[in-house]
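Running log. JK asked me to keep both predictions on one page so they can be read side by side. First protein, sequence followed by its tokens:
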Amino acid sequence: MKMFGDAVILCGGKSSRMGFDKSLLKIDGEYVINIMSDKLGRIFDRVSLCANGSGKFEKFGLPIITDIHNDGIGPVAAVHSALRSCGSQYVFVVAVDMPLLNLELIRHMMQVLEAADPPPLAFAPETDGYLEATHAFYSINALGYIEKQIDAGNFAVNKILKGLDAMRLDEGISRSFDADLTMFTNLNYAEDLDKIGGYNCD
């Protein structure tokens, strides 16, 4: 099995803070999904969308992973669905509201994973003590643990990462690639769009 091959953009979420569907955001007239998939396609064999099965994503021409748990339990459901559907040892997952990807950082994370012994079940950047759970690599070997947590009603993905004893990328290393950590910016509120020239028109 290939170590790296799959990247999955998580398109779920209710976008309640934004006020409209974040998955259809545009930056300078280009869909965020297209921007992200074009970038990720430079280093991954396959870029997929994890969504709730809605036909609104078909226009992007990307593989769509249907969210198995379509009951509002959060990003852990999308991570679970991605791991069940992908065919590489590690899957890189990133939220659709984190469009400012830094490919050099992601490549660095891949190099760290290649050298890790033993290989971790997950690998996520840490910023101010917080694990970036929706900008992380997950091993297919974590699938069983994640399924048990979902069955037990434990949906907090950061707690699940701790339970997996996830490898952490030191914040100082992340800042060596992007001093302001803009690559971890979440577009949660409409005013956040002003910072990057983004808007929604669908």
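And the second, directly underneath as requested:
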Amino acid sequence: MKKDEIRRRVKARKTLLSDDEKERASERAFMLLENSAAFMLADRILMYHSLPDELPTRSFIAKWASRKRFYLPRVNGVNLDILPYDEQSLTLGSFHIEEPTGNDMASIDDIELVVVPAVAFDRRGNRVGRGKGYYDRLLGSTRATKVGMGFDFQLLDEEIESEPHDVALDIVITENNHIVIRHRRR
């Protein structure tokens, strides 16, 4: 199935979710994340502030913000800057996502765990994003563990075709799945 078709199907399915269903799925998925070795061992974590059709992240960030160092992305042209999370210095940025303000940028080399959203995932760690390539450009430059988070229906049984610039994930988590992907080393 082509990426545009996947985007269309998943978008249609997301419109059927109630806010309560989103919250319940988020609680279960993020419980799987917080119980994972990858999360327990990481101190510096790049998260995302969720869009209305993604697993809600705000309560998870608030729960752990005093014990982990969270960072959020900020759109800068075609790339993402990484800034420390500070609830007091967020502003509505590109694509109507709350982003950190300021100039205290971090290096992707300092991040130990990257938690990313996507439109869809497969069981090999391939993902379909929204089509702009922001995360692929960022993920291609880090050795951090890469975790994709989504709803159960975003995890596809069929393999997603990948392109040379696509970066596979190490872990995919949904409300009922925790899949660790074993990549072949090149």
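Observation for JK regarding the second prediction: The CA atoms of residues 120 and 154 lie 5 Å apart.
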